[in-house]
Amino acid sequence: MGYGGARRLADSRLCKDFKGFELGETVTIVGDHDPALMKYFDCTRSSHRSAFDGNVVYQFEIMEYILDYGFERMGADGSQVDHPILITECVCNPVQSRSKLAELLFEGYGVPSVAFGVDAVFSYKYNQQLGVCDKDGLAICSGLNTSHIIPFVNGEPVFEACCRTNIGGYHVTDYLKQLLSLKYPNHMSNITWEKVEDLKMEHCYVALDYASEVRLFQKGAKEAEEKNRCWQLPWIPPPAEEPPSEEEIARKAAIKEKQGQRLREMAAAKRSSRITELENELQGLEFLLHQLENVQENDVPSFLSETGYISKLEIESAVVRVTQSLKKAKREQVEIEEKMDPSMTEKYTLINIPDNMLSPEQLKEKRKQLFIKTTSEGRQRAKQKRFEEELDRERQNELDEKKRLENPELYLEQLHAKHRELSEKFEQRKRLKVNGTHTNESHNSSGGVGRGERLNAAQKERMRLLTTAAFDRGKGEDTFGTRDEDWQLYKLMSKDIDDDDEGQDEDEAELARVTSRLQDIDPTFVAKSEIGPFQTIVEIPRFRPLTKEDFQIILGVERFRCPEILFQPNMIGIDQAGMDEMAGISIRRLPLKGNSVEERITNSILMTGGSCLFPGMGERLEAGIRKIRPFESPIRVVRASDPVLDAWRGAAAFAAAVPFSEQIFSRQDYYEKGEDWLRRYNLRQMIAITGAFHFSQISLGQEREPMAGLTFARGLALLYGHSSKSCAYDSPNKMVIRKKFKLRDIKIRTVFRVELSLVEFGQAQLCFSLARTLL
Amino acid sequence: MEAEVLEANILLPTHLSFKRIQMSEKYPKGHARGRHWKHLKQILQAENYQIYSSNEPNYVNIESPPSMYPSKKFCDITGFEAPYIDPRTNLRYANTDVFKCIRSLPNEYVQRYLALRNAAVVLK
Predict the structure, then answer these.
(1) What is the Cα–Cα distance from A56 to B58, expressed in whole angstroms?
(2) Quick one: where's region Disordered (chain A) (predicted)?
């Protein structure tokens, strides 16, 4: 919003955002989004809203807030706003929007008079005054949500030939944001709308020829590398651990030594105490034995009952046991095996005796012994086999080493090849599984056995059997199962469910072994990872620390891919013409051609609007328009002096000019003429006054024809305000008739004014105009 | 109010002298606030442009037609020229590396790429 000179208000930036917050109280905030200030507010319950849908105002509550803000900032105080207001709008604004806005201004603010105008036109007129473009020309206005092309003939915009595509800066930013978030999902929180908009304004440009530019990047040429821009996200490297200095190492080693020493001492102490214990026990037992020899046969039990042993045998076995443990404690090799074997064979005595000679208890014994024997034999065999395998592997390793030493390169190559093969197989299997499960995610099959999981042979076979069984039935009902033989089908299927996995495990183990071997031998070997020449969804491998590069966002192709959608809306799925094609369409739509109008138009093409600030846009437009114009027609594309604010400047200039007062309509007019008149209201741009012509052409009945007079405004100045109730016209051809009548289905209070007016174009034309105003 | 916020001039005072009816009275707190605003589509429908002559420019008239040029196909992921389409996901791709990448994308990303091009399947 701005304050025009001569106390006129012009509002050219109707696209401010708006926020309502709670901060103990609800406050309303109007303005551009500033993240620094947002932290003072709690925006959980509401978010920023815009008054626009496309480029049309539809949320008048928010519009009211914006206007409030504007008026207040401009220092309006007093009981009402006392200035006439000029408001910019979009091309061919729907009447409802226009009328609601007028109503808002009149009722809410008490504005005395209002005028509406198109922003692109103001911009063009302003630049025309500056001399940047001519009287006849083309305005290419690319805004936030839409892009317009408006041809000008003799200073007047020709709205019939206007063309609009619903692509603007908003779409460009949105596209860039989506692309970046898909490419760098880790940094999604940093890729905010405001930041992306900044990036767009700073780095994006329009390529002269998209295809060749893209080819440059595809080849990976050096120029492409230079064009890459890098956005470094804030990142703090982890504190670098200094390699410990010599004394650190020595100190740590000494500490470890000491600890080891201490542990060893403790173990030794324990051992020695145990040894003494055992020795004591042994001594006691021997003493007991010795005593036993002295005692009589009969007194043995009573004598022994004191000590806790029942028979001499037991004492002897205890003695043996203790000696053994003593020996073990003293770390002598004990041939336990030998001791065991004789006791084993003792225990196996019953096996050799045939069954019929044994009692039932002995039979049980025998079975037990048999069992023990077989298990122990099995264990021994297993041990033997393991031992042999070990030897085998040792031998293999030795062979390997020998091979390696004699021909290191060949060996390495072979190993590499093997690794590649294995990893390929592994990857493929993994991918099959992954893809299978991913296609399943979308269908969300319950149960889990989807297509992907049936990919191993056994399950394929199973599936085949089932389907043949189902289809062999013939058409009609499914009679599977009525006969018993049908169920035999299931016997044919293998019972393995996941034998695929086992195979994979083997391969995995093999792969791991080969990888580790390679890593040991080959210093240049790096574990394979999937990173192509472009940046795709890169998973940060876990085995290396995050580096600076992980926090960089690189804009390469996106720099010119995003603004390209202005010229090729198909890239984003919007099925409309791009900007250069629109120029052609607009010129074709011009109702009156001839007199080399087209050449004059293409000679002065003005780019205005915020989204035309991309570097390279001018050249691209020129190239595009040259394609559709005949050979060697003059084409000149210029940029407005200030594309963003020119519309406002133009409007301000217009408002400051004297005839402005005749353009606007006042409150009374509005009440009188009402909404429908507003439909036909159009701002005249030419300032020169050569006559008063009133164009309104309406037919009777429900139909009405709008201001066709506008199209005939060639070379004529038109400036006429519908300001007076009782028009007294000078021209004899005009008559004013007042007539009142009611319409069937519309409310009462309609005032009608029938006028005959004259349109001059080398021919006189009488037309009736029936103005119906509804209040 | 913090000084910074005041200085930035973004707050709207609650009472404005030049208004006849203050916003707080018009839209009292707690009531549904103006949800009845018509969207652009509804506005255009209500306009009923068919009854007027097609010569006159109106909002719908001046819309540009579909492009005459056949659309160039570009890779969804890299932006290069893309002569190929992946049959499973319907994404366009430029070469085998991109293809490998596409095949390892989770489904969510595939749909988002398609949505960029307005080609995603929307189930309603």
Answers:
(1) 13
(2) 374-402
* Tens of pLDDT, residues A191-245: 888 888 888 888 888 888 888 888 888 887 777 777 777 777 777 766 666 666 7
Cβ contacts of A438 on chain B, cutoff 8 Å = 106-107
Q: Considering only the beta carbons, identify the residue of A81, A92, A165 that sits closest to B64.
A: A165
Give the mean model confidence (pLDDT) for residues B28-42.
68
- Contact B21/A108 with Cβ under 8 angstroms? yes
Give domain status of residue A161, yes or no. Answer: no
Q: What is the pTM of this model?
A: 0.58
- Output phi, psi for A106, to 5 deg: -70, -50
> Inter-chain contact A533–B97, Cβ cutoff 8 Å?
yes
For residue A746, being part of any structural domain is answered with yes
Beta-carbon separation of A704 and B17 below 8 A: no
> Chain A closest CA to B7's CA: distance in Å?
10
pLDDT (mean) for A598-621? 87
Residues A699, A767 share a domain: yes
Do A653 and A624 share a domain, yes or no? Answer: no
Q: Please give the tally of structural domains in chain A.
A: 5
CB contact under 8 A, A61 and B119: no
Q: Range of A107's domain?
A: 2-145+644-673
Choose among B39, B67, B103: nearest Cβ to A570.
Answer: B67
Q: What is the dihedral of CA B34, B36, B41, B45, to 10 degrees?
A: -130
Is residue A502, in this structure, part of any structural domain at all?
Answer: no
**CB contact (8 A) between residue A162 and residue B62:** yes
ipTM of the complex: 0.89
Same-domain pairing of A141 and A58: yes
> Which residues of A147-192 form beta strands (DSSP E)?
147-153, 156-157, 163-165
How far is residue B42 from each of residues A64, A96, A702, B47, B51, measured CA to CA in Å? 21, 11, 22, 8, 17
Q: Answer whether residue A661 is part of any domain.
A: yes
Same domain, yes or no, for A337 and A263? Answer: yes
Q: Are residues A291 and A419 in the same domain?
A: no
- State whether A747 and A768 are in the same domain: yes
